[in-house]
Design a protein that fits this description.
Layout: E1 4-9, H1 13-16, H2 24-37, E2 42-47, H3 61-64, E3 93-97, H4 108-114, E4 119-125, H5 127-140, E5 144-153, H6 157-167, E6 173-175, H7 177-183
Parallel strand pairs: 1-2, 1-4, 2-3, 4-5, 5-6
């Protein structure tokens, strides 16, 4: 039987502040609670950088603007912490990534392989960012994949719909938090 892990990706205060998360966070918390109750590891992925942003190239269109923002993603401050509504429990793993994919610039693959995990359940903000990039890379790494469509969020509802209904099903099972939790 495949060993699952629930990935909670980019659900940091600095990210959630840019989205309407009133309905989203309770759904995501439900997925986290179901995973914990089912003995499934919950792994948190946050984006963060060293002070001075040495990891960010000026050629990287996505992250070059981050280095100049007032809300810093450098160091271990409040902006790099997971939103308190879904915060890690003591002992749960938090992985810091340096790019869009949860694998890029992180030790996520090492953590997963060491834990014997071969099935990833993906959640996070944004569907068109970390979820898409992580799904593509995880598929290439031969992980079995599930996407909890209502535990993913995007600033563009149509992009979210197209990804979860047309793109993701080619590489993953797409379901809801309730359906996934009921099957545990």
């Amino acid at each position: 039987m495949p060993q699952q892990a629930l990935l909670v990706m980019d659900v940091q205060q600095v990210v959630t502040d840019r989205f309407a998360v009133d309905d989203y966070l309770p759904r995501l918390a439900g997925a986290v609670d179901a995973a914990r109750a089912g003995g499934i590891p919950v792994i948190y992925v946050v984006v963060g950088f060293r002070p001075g942003y040495p990891e960010i190239s000026p050629r990287n269109k996505t992250f070059a603007a981050v280095a100049g923002r007032a809300a810093s993603l450098a160091g271990d401050g409040p902006t790099t912490r997971v939103h308190p509504g879904v915060a890690p429990a003591p002992g749960e793993t938090v992985v810091t990534k340096r790019r869009v994919s949860a694998f890029a610039g992180s030790d996520l693959d090492v953590v997963l392989r060491a834990g014997g995990i071969d099935h990833l359940v993906l959640t996070g903000i944004a569907t068109s960012g970390v979820v898409l990039s992580t799904l593509r890379q995880a598929a290439d790494l031969d992980f079995e994949l599930t996407v909890l469509s209502d535990a993913c969020l995007d600033s563009d509802p149509e992009v979210h719909r197209v990804l979860t209904e047309k793109v993701f099903p080619k590489q993953a099972e797409v379901t809801t938090v309730d359906a996934w939790a009921a099957a545990l």
